[in-house]
Write a structure and sequence with these properties.
Elements: H1 2-12, H2 18-34, E1 37-47, E2 55-64, E3 68-75, E4 79-84, E5 87-92, E6 95-98, H3 104-115, E7 124-129, E8 133-138, H4 141-144, E9 149-155, E10 158-165, E11 171-181
Antiparallel strand pairs: 1-2, 1-11, 2-3, 3-4, 4-5, 5-6, 7-8, 8-9, 9-10, 10-11
Length: 192
C-alpha cells in the first residue's frame, strides 16, 4: 500500500512535457470558449499562524461571459464580491462599495482565469504538473506583496481548487463542488 501512495505522489509531482503543456492549454482554452456560464458551491479555508484552526467560509460562485464573476459568501457571514467591467465591488451588511486600485491585479487574475487567458500573463512563472495542477509563482513586484504563489487544480479542464499563498506562508484554499456549466443564470444574480 505504501508503494501505491508513493507512486501516486510521484506521478502528481512530475512536470508535464512541452507537448502535454500545449495539449493542456488547448483544453483549457476550448473549455473556457465553450463555457458561457458556470455556478458552483465553494468552501474556503483560511490558514493563518494567528488561527488555532483554519477559518471556514462557504458560498456560491457564479460566472457569466464575458467577464462577470460573483463570489457569494453565505457563512459565517453574508458577503458578495463582484468582479464586473474591470471593477471589483463588495456588498457587506447591506452596503455596496467599490474596491480600490489595490485589487486591480486580483481582478485581472480572476478575469484571465475565466476566459482562458490565464497562462498568457507576464505576472507569473508557470509550472505545469501531471494530474492537472499548475503552480503560478508571482514575479510582479506589486502583486508579490500580497501573493507569492497560486496553486490551481483542474479537473477535466475546469478549475476545481485554488490555493493562494501569501509571502509569510499563510494561505487561502478554495475548493469548488457541484459545478453546473452553461445553465441559464438570472441576470439579477449579479446585482449588488
Amino acid at each position: 500500500m505504501k508503494w501505491l501512495i508513493v507512486s501516486f505522489f510521484l506521478f502528481f509531482s512530475q512536470e508535464m512535457s512541452d507537448a502535454e503543456i500545449r495539449e493542456f492549454k488547448a483544453g483549457i482554452k476550448k473549455f473556457t470558449a465553450q463555457t458561457e456560464t458556470l455556478s458552483a458551491d465553494f468552501i474556503q479555508y483560511r490558514h493563518s499562524t494567528y488561527l488555532a484552526k483554519p477559518a471556514e467560509s462557504r458560498g456560491k460562485l457564479y460566472f457569466s461571459k464575458p467577464n462577470t464573476v460573483l463570489w457569494k459568501y453565505q457563512s459565517p457571514q453574508v458577503v458578495d464580491v463582484l468582479f464586473k467591467d474591470k471593477k471589483m465591488s463588495v456588498k457587506e451588511n447591506g452596503k455596496s462599495k467599490e474596491a480600490g486600485k489595490r485589487w486591480e491585479k486580483l481582478q485581472n487574475f480572476i478575469t484571465q482565469s475565466s476566459t482562458g487567458e490565464l497562462f498568457e500573463s507576464k505576472e507569473f512563472k508557470y509550472k505545469f504538473l501531471k494530474g492537472g495542477k499548475v503552480i503560478l509563482t508571482t514575479v510582479d513586484p506589486q502583486l508579490k506583496r500580497y501573493i507569492s504563489q497560486i496553486d490551481l487544480q483542474f479537473d477535466e479542464y475546469a478549475l476545481s481548487e485554488i490555493k493562494m499563498v501569501e509571502p509569510k506562508g499563510d494561505y487561502t484554499l478554495i475548493q469548488m463542488k457541484n459545478k453546473q456549466i452553461n445553465k441559464k443564470l438570472d441576470a439579477q444574480v449579479f446585482n449588488l
